[in-house]
Structure formats: C-alpha cells, structure tokens
Amino acid sequence: MTRHASGGNVHNSPTAHGDHSIAANDIKNVIVKWVMHPSARWLPLLLACTAVVIAGSTQPGGPAGQYALWGTLSGLALLTAAARVLNRRPRDARVVGALSLVSVLATVGGWLAFQHVVAHGEVDVTGAVRIQGTQPLDRETNRSLTLLLDAPALKEARDALRLTLAIEDHDPAGPTCLPDSATVSMLTSGVAAQSQRIGSSGTVDFALGAGVSTVRIDVTVHTDHGCRMDISTKEAVLHDR
C-alpha cells in the first residue's frame, strides 16, 4: 500500500519480486513435468545417436588422435543418455534433469569438436599422389621425377602439405647404395617456389596458397655413380599450420 502526500490516495503496488518469483516457478514446473515425462527420456539418446551416426558417416579421415575430444564427449553423451533411459521410475527430478542436461551439452560439444576437425583437421591424401617419371633414378641420365596432387585430392582446404618419402635401392639383393640426400621442390602455380633437402627417408612440409587446384613436387636424387634408386610416397597429409 502506498499513500501519496498530495491527495492521500491509496492504491495497490505489487512488487516486481513477487511477479518474477511466480513466473520463475511456473517455468520450473513446466521443465520438471517435461523432464519427468516418460517420452522425454528417449530424446537425449536419440539426439546423441543421431550426432554420432552423422559424424561417423561424414568424417574426413586423418589420424585417430584428432577425434579424441569428439569421441570423449560423444561417449559421455551416450552414457548419460542411456542412464536416463534405464531410469524408468525416477524419483528425483534433479537427477533426471542433470543426466539429460549433461547428455545434451556433451552432444553439442562433441558436434562442435567434430566440426572443428572437419574444417581444420589433417586429411590423408597419400593414395592420391601420382608419380610422373621413370624409375629407377640414377646420377647420370635420370635423376628426377614428379609427384602430383590434383583437384579432387585438394577439395579439403588446408594451408600446408606434409610429405614423407622413401628412397630405396632398386635392387634390394645387391649392396646398399642409399643416396646422401634428395632435393624436394614444390613448383605450384600461385605459390612461391619452395625447396628442401632430405635424407633417404625424410619429411618435408610445404605451405599451400589459397585455392590451389594442383600441387607439383619435383624430387631430385643425389647419389653415387652407378647407383639406381626407387622413390615412393610413405605419407602425404594436408593440414593447417
């Protein structure tokens, strides 16, 4: 009740605290009823399973380690969702609500982690590397060959290529004749030429420009007179630096 000094009128003035308390209590009751409803116990599990199936069918490959966070969160989502389903006669809405909330949050977090891998994770393109040139290589007349990656292999946009080569004796039964080194050079349109020197088994890492549609890499072997060598690609991985 509030009295105004000027006229002495009296009127009711409900407090904001009371209105907000009533609204919050109504919202709480609706949430509790939904959480405790038998049909609601399946929703977190369905959401978690759907996210796992979609991610599993669209994952871009690459090392398993980059999926660790996604796997952990997806496992947590499935575990808590299953616990919610198995609790057929819940007595405490707080426990049920906590299980549902953790499952949904873990599903969302796992999905975001998976999307980060899709956008920035490593992509194995080893099988897409084409070799142009004649092998074996020697010191005199046939020292180089070319490795190519075409547009289909580069559809996942990444800013670097990590390449591991194996340089081996053409005749494994003969005396070993491994080269002292090999020069690996990337000559790609729109990207500054890059060159690195490696041993008989080494890894190079080249920066890629935006929108590169073809990658060309020349490999020149430096070995002794009379040696004949074979080159193969052990690993080729697109990645973000």
User: Which shape, going by the Cα principal axes?
Assistant: elongated
Rg from Cα: 32 Å
Strand content of the residues, in percent? Answer: 25-35%
Q: Helicity level, as a percent range?
A: 25-40%
Question: How is the biggest beta sheet arranged?
Answer: 5 strands, antiparallel
How does the helix and strand content classify structurally? alpha+beta
The topology string of helices and strands comes to EEHHHHEEEEEEEEE
| Tally of strands | 11
Strand order of the largest sheet: 4-5-10-7-8
Oligomer: single chain
Poorly predicted ranges (pLDDT <50, ≥5 residues)? 1-8, 10-16
Number of helices: 4
How would you describe this structure to a colleague?
The chain is α+β, with helices and mostly antiparallel strands. The protein contains four helices and eleven strands; from the N terminus they run E-E-H-H-H-H-E-E-E-E-E-E-E-E-E. It has a five-stranded antiparallel β-sheet, with no helix packed on it. It has a four-stranded antiparallel β-sheet with strand order 3-11-6-9, with no helix packed on it. A two-stranded antiparallel sheet has the order 1-2. Helix 2 (43-58) runs antiparallel to helix 3 and helix 3 (68-86) packs antiparallel against helix 4 (93-120). The N and C termini lie far apart (68 Å). Residues 1-8 and 10-16 have low confidence and may be disordered.
